[in-house]
Write a structure and sequence with these properties.
Length: 220
């Protein structure tokens, strides 16, 4: 990629498919972005670019790139498909560009402490990368199978549908309380309804939201 192409890309600002990082001194933050893109629809990560779009570059881009490559290899599970390149921008400074492809093996997670099995997954929401809940990770895992999902329209589902007829969204905690069921059962129910395309999950850093799948709504 040439410098002119990079400038045109940067001019778009950060999006669902584009993220800027000023430096690479914290590999865990870079890994977070790479995983988020792989778990969503892919994207590009530009390292050496400020949030305001100014291109400062990195003094030791080759060394930073080497450290990042080792981090991605060691801490991303399962392995992620991507391309990376170092592009000179001015004097002795360069930027690092990662092009991450949407994965066929979701969910990907960061494993920084293998002894404690600390697995954190991330997904891309608008121009942010947020930590994926266990429900989101399960949905990503089961979406790979692409099989039809059936569910029973029982009392708890009726309560849920009635609530969503009157409200924009519901959280897992609110659904469990409303239906008088355990969080585990509420979680399973919501996951099933998302996989059946009845509901849509809206990932949030704190607590996910669930609403009717807009693709199934018919305008009146």
């Amino acid at each position: 990629m040439k410098l002119g192409e990079i400038k045109r890309l940067v001019a778009q600002g950060e999006t669902e498919f584009l993220e800027f990082k000023t430096k690479a001194s914290h590999p865990e933050k870079i890994i977070r972005e790479i995983i988020a893109f792989a778990n969503t629809k892919g994207g590009r990560l530009l390292i050496g670019v400020n949030d305001d779009g100014s291109i400062n570059g990195l003094k030791d881009a080759a060394e930073e790139h080497y450290i990042l490559e080792r981090a991605v290899k060691n801490f991303c599970v399962p392995k992620i498909s991507y391309n990376s390149e170092i592009i000179p921008v001015s004097g002795k400074k360069s930027i690092i560009i990662y092009t991450i492809f949407e994965s066929e093996f979701k969910p990907h997670c960061a494993v920084f402490n293998r002894d404690k099995r600390w697995h954190k997954g991330y997904i891309r929401v608008a121009d942010k990368s947020v930590q994926a809940s266990k429900e989101m990770k399960e949905i990503l895992r089961r979406e790979r199978k692409a099989t039809a999902v059936k569910f029973t329209y029982g009392p708890k589902e009726q309560i849920l549908m009635k609530y969503l007829d009157q409200h924009d969204f519901i959280t897992l905690k609110d659904f469990a309380q409303l239906a008088g069921i355990r969080p585990y059962l509420a979680s399973r129910t919501l996951i099933t309804l998302v996989l059946a395309n009845v509901l849509q999950i809206i990932p949030r850093e704190g607590e996910d939201q669930y609403r009717f799948n807009s693709a199934n709504l018919v305008s009146k």
